[in-house]
Every structure is written in structure tokens, then in C-alpha cells.
């Protein structure tokens, strides 16, 4: 079953991005992948997703800036999920200020992320 719910993954590690995309597609989500912050932001603004999974530490445009610009540029606001390798305070606190709704530590369980997205998709439909 394909859900009418669009997910954008912004992740510079191709293996992580592609594996997560495969699991989420198996859940029935429509998934797009961007392998850097600039192309992720461009994709989000061109075709607004329902949710964005975004790495924080990426070269160039990092996840904090991607989140801020998505929050400033899109209405309605998509669900923003940070997925990164660190729970250090210099990451967690700015992630909240940038507008992330949820935070997952790598290696994030794609099934847990899929469950969160399914709950959000279900709540959005009512």
C-alpha cells in the first residue's frame, strides 16, 4: 500500500540514505533522497514533503541551516526529524532551535522512524 505521504531524506552517507529510503518505501511512503544539504533544501522548497529526515553534520549546508530554511520557507511546515551521530549538547540544543521536531541517534532504527512517520501520517489524515 502506498501512502499519500512524502518523505525527503537529506543524508550525505549514501548507504544510510538508501537503506533508510528502502525501509520507508516498504512501509508505503513516497521517498526522495538528497545527498547534501543544498540539494535537499532545493528539493524541499520545489516539492514540499510531509516529513524531512535530515543529517546534522554534512559538508556545506548543514542540517541546522536546512531545517531553518525549510521552517522559514514552507507552509504548512513538514515534520522535521534530525538523524545524526551525536547526542552532544552542541548538537541537541541547536537542533531544537533550528526547528527539528524529533531527534534520532545514528544508527537510527528505520522501523522506529517508519512508525513515527506512520503515526504522523495517520494523525494528519484525521
Give the SSE order as H and E letters. Answer: EHEHEHEHEH
Average per-residue pLDDT, rounded, comes to: 88
What is the C-alpha radius of gyration, as a whole number of Å? 13 Å
What kind of assembly state do the chains in view correspond to? single chain
From the helix content, strand content and strand pairing, which structural class follows?
Answer: alpha/beta
CATH superfamily of the domain at 1-86: Response regulator
Q: Catalogue the unreliable spans.
A: none
Taking strands numbered 1, 2, ... along the chain, how are they ordered across the largest sheet?
A: 2-1-3-4-5
- SS summary, helix count: 5
**CATH architecture label of the domain at 1-86:** 3-Layer(aba) Sandwich
Number of beta-strand segments:
5
Amino acid at each position: 500500500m502506498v501512502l499519500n505521504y512524502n518523505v525527503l531524506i537529506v543524508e550525505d552517507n549514501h548507504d544510510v540514505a538508501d537503506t533508510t529510503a528502502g525501509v520507508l518505501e516498504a512501509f508505503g511512503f513516497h521517498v526522495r533522497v538528497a545527498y547534501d544539504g543544498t540539494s535537499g533544501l532545493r528539493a524541499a522548497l520545489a516539492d514540499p514533503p510531509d516529513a524531512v529526515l535530515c543529517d546534522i553534520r554534512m559538508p556545506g549546508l548543514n542540517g541546522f541551516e536546512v531545517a531553518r530554511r525549510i521552517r522559514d520557507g514552507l507552509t504548512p511546515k513538514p515534520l522535521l526529524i534530525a538523524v545524526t551521530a551525536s547526542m552532544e549538547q552542541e548538537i541537541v540544543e541547536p537542533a531544537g532551535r533550528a526547528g527539528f521536531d524529533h531527534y534520532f541517534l545514528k544508527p537510527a532504527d528505520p522501523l522506529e522512524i517508519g512508525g513515527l512517520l506512520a503515526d504522523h501520517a495517520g494523525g494528519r489524515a484525521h
